[in-house]
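User: Second chain of the day. Same drill as before.
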Amino acid sequence: MPPVVPATDGIDPNALRVLITGFGPFDKYKENPSWLAVKPLHNTILYTDPPTDLLVPNDQAAMITDEMEEFLRRPQQIHISTLEVPVSYQAVLSITPGLHGRPPVLPRPNDPALAVPPPPANGYDFIFHVGVAGRGPLRIERLGHKNGYRMKDKDGEYAPIVHLPKDPIGDTAEAELQRMERMLGPPHALHGPNHGPEVPEVVDIPPPPNRGFGKGYEQFADELSTDVDVPKLIVHLKESGIDQVYSSMDAGHYLCDFIFYCSLAESRRGILPQEKFKERSTPPKTTPVLFLHVPPVDQPLSTEQVTDAIQRIVLWVCGRLHHP
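Assistant: Same format as last time:
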């Protein structure tokens, strides 16, 4: 892996701009393992070569001159900025939309040494979120979920309540009859001392409220998938010597899942529905968004190993974003 290069001479205006977030302290983690792995990459530079199979489309190969091919093969600068996000639903909702702004709007970090350079006017080229999970391999998430958040955050707060459309079956007379039968008990009701029917007291406890994304996110699906080709990325990482990594379709319905869904939704905000751009030569592009779950330190991977894996992921994704 190439060494991390501090961005001491400014940022190349043609550089790919990457934002990586980690989470702050919570529960038993005075320093979140995700932030420990992300923090060393703040304001650093990587260089990547584009994949050879993506340099030139086959139908355009005859149009490429030697000078153009040399330019396409030129290593591209990647500038990385990092941001620590509190383990709070409200913090995620207030911070994440700004990350996808044009230009992005980021909160001021508590540590002046971690000040974020001026964001790119047209937005970041890749937004990469990292969070901690249990002991085990690295886990690259493929899916973010809109609803079903039941756990409290570090401040003891829940995700917002979302009122889902009523189930049409639940509004039928048959459903109401079934509900009344549950309340009144079975037909063979118990008999009390006066030999009359004794109706057991049954409390119809309502289910807990649904929590997740409501106002402002109505147009987005219940599940959103990353545009990054995770299976190919997993193959690349394993070929690079990172064996302890796999993909996942369940980001956990906690803050990791919450920021992943929020970021995926914000990356798509303003994009026209598919039927409205059928006549375009190329559909509008969204910012690639990815989420990586990392284990606690040394369970089994060290912070340095996780940081190395994060760099390799950035290089692979950005290699497919190479700007000609």
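The first helix runs from residue 33 to 38.

User: Great, on to the next one.
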